[in-house]
Design a protein that fits this description.
By secondary structure, this protein is mainly α. The chain is built from three helices and no strands. It has helices at about 5-30, 35-60, 65-85. α1 runs antiparallel to α2 and α2 runs antiparallel to α3. The protein is elongated, with a radius of gyration of 15 Å.
Amino acid sequence: MGDALKALVSGAMVMGYLTAGLFFLRFWRDTRDRLFAVFAAAFWLLAVQRGVLTVAAHQGHEASVWIYALRLLAFVLILYAVVDKNRAG
């Protein structure tokens, strides 16, 4: 896959993550349920991670651990939100 196509796909993924974050933010605004706020933050973190990864790949630094630590943090946030939702009530 060419570099231009990789950048296009990464950009589409960033847009998708940002859109999903906006949907969860809207659901949070309607319900005030903490689960939706944490999901929105996690998806925005995934968008940032994908954008940074794309830029770093063009500069030759794509193997940086902290970039993938952002993805891990996003998944930990999702796991926290699910556990918190199931423990409450």
